Amino acid sequence: MQPRQDVIKVLIVDGSRIFRSLVEESLSRVNDMVVSGSTWSGRKALIQIEENRPDVVLLEVEMPEMNGLETLDEIGKKNRMEKNLPPIQVIMLSRLTQEASSTTIKALKGGAFDFVAKPAKNEATAVRQLSRTLVPKIRATRKGRVLPRTKPNPVLNHKVFQPRLMRREPQIILVGCSTGGPKALAQFLPHLSELTDLSILIVQHMPPTFTKSLAGSLDRLCRHHVEEAHNGQPVLPDNIYIAPGGFHMLLRRGGDGQLHIATNETPHENGCRPSVDVLFRSVVPLFNANILAYVLTGMGRDGCRGAAALKRAGAHVLVQDEPTSVVWGMPGSIVAEGLADGVYPINQLAGRSVALLPSMLRC
Description:
The protein is α/β, with parallel strands linked by helices and 363 residues long. The chain folds into 2 domains: 4-143, Response regulator (Rossmann fold), CATH 3.40.50; 154-360, Rossmann fold (3-Layer(aba) Sandwich). Helix content is 35%, strand content 20%. The strands form 3 sheets. A 7-stranded parallel beta sheet has the order 8-9-7-6-12-13-14, with helices on both faces. The protein has a 5-stranded parallel beta sheet with strand order 2-1-3-4-5, with helices on both faces. Helix 6 links the parallel strand 6 and strand 7 (200-204).
C-alpha cells in the first residue's frame, strides 16, 4: 500500500447523485486516489473544502444555487490566499452541449486545470469509460510540470538553450496543444495574428462542440478570423482554422493549386482525434522547410513524431517553456528529443518568433 501522502484526494461536485456514485465507484479501484467527499452543490463544496482540503475538485459546469464558474472563482480566491499550500486543482465536468461547452471554455481560461465531457447517460459502462480519461488527468495535476524521462538530457536545461534562426521564410503556421491549451491560445494567438498574415492551423485536443466554442471565443480576441475547420474549405491568409473535435485535420492541394482543409475519422493517434501528428505530417510534402510550428502545453507526446518529420524537411519548431505550461508533456517531449528551435514563455513566444523570423512581420 502506498504512503498516505502519495494518495490524491478528490472531491466530486455534481448535481446527479447517480453520476457521483458511479464516478466514486470508478475511482475506488485506483490505488493512488481516494474520494474525500461528494456533493451536489458548489456552496456545499466550498464548506467541504474548508473541512477536508482536497487535492483535486471534479466540478460540474451547470449546477443549481452556485454554478461551476462561480465555484471555480471561489476556489481560485482560496488558492491565491493560501500561497504556502499547493493549489487545489479543478477539472470541469461538462455535458456535450453548446451552452455547456462555452461555459467550459470560460472555465479553462479562468484557471481550471482541464475538463472531461460527461457521458450522455449515467450508465455504469459509460462512466467507467469516462474514468479512463479522467484518471490520467487527475494524475497529471500531481505531476505538474515534470516530464517523465528515463535518462538525463542536458538540452532540458533551457536556461542555456540556444534558439536557432530559421533560414527559410515560413508560408504557413501550425499549432498543437492539449491540457491548458485554451488559456495558452488566448494569450498567444492575439499577439501572433498581429504579427503575420499567414494562415494558422491549430489542433487542440477537444471533443465535438467544444472546438466550435473555442473558435468563437478566440475569434473575439484575434485580428485573424478564427473558425472551426470543415472539410473542403479553402485555406486563406488572415484566417485561423481549429481542427473539429472528433476529426483529424489535414491539408491538401486541389487540382486548381488551392490549399484545402481535409477532415477524416481514421483511427486515433496517440489516443487522440484530432491528432497533432496527423496535421504536421500532412503539411510536410506541401511546404517542406517553409513551415513554422508551435507546440504548446499538453499531456502526452502527440506532436513529437510530427515534429521529427517537420525537422527532417528543414522546418522550424518552437515550444512553450515548462514554467508557463500547465503540463509540459507535449512541448517537453519535443525538447527531450532535440527537436526544438526555441523554448519560450507563452507571453514571449510570438514576439521572440519575430526576432528569429523577421520576414514574418506584416507589411
